[in-house]
Model the fold of this input.
Amino acid sequence: MRKTKKLTALVLTSVMAVSVLAGCGSNKTPETAAGADGEKKTLKVAMECGYAPYNWTQPTNDNGAVPISGSSDYAYGYDVKMAQHICDELGYELEIVKLDWDSLVPAVQSGTVDCVIAGQSITKDRQEMVDFTKPYYYASIVTLVKGDGAYAEAKSVEDLKGVTCTSQQNTIWYNVCLPQIADANVLPAQESAPAMLVALDSGKCDAVVTDMPTGMAACVAYPDFKLLDFSENAEGAFEVSEEDINIGISVQKGNDELREAIDSVLEKMTVEDYTKMMDEAISVQPLSE
Done:
């Protein structure tokens, strides 16, 4: 989730060293995580803090935002709300660690953080590097265009033929979806979701492909954007697998205690719970004001 991304082989091979998780530790369950003095242990959760509505950075603790470790800023959004809910249920203190997207999986592998809650899709490639919980969100694929642009009335992927487009780097949006557009002029991938949206807003491209929450949030921030959802047109939609749209929480390989503990919280939640939480995040994202 944000982010349905795919890391390069170079990054993967350079970070395979496994160490003990900070905070919770790879062998600690919620029951044993409390210290001898009864103090709560800290769950270190990594995210970009720049991918609304999943997560973003803000200057205050409005709406229950959580301090970003080593910073005077705060993080909020769907991922922060979910992380706080998990910590409340399991009895942990929450620490948010802000990292670049491509640093998230390496941080879990090395034990720098305990888990990543950042809109990650549960892809086979990623499962070779980290373990995942059950999904904590299900995100469909959408296309964003200008409301007065040449592709505003597109009803299918086929109708995007010849479009100039881009998306965020190391995502299924860029790597899987854009190649399905016939004769597309695919621009270099953008380093972040905000950069992707700026590219569309500035006229650098005619369309970007993303997931539904990101698209909904973008349309609030950019009223002249139009969201195209081809999912109801089975023959005209982007072809993606379940793993591409199932968003999970990643933990270090073999950390079954933490994974199962988080799953025990998610198992009590419904799709309606996820939708309500996401809608709340979209309504208070910084650019919605």
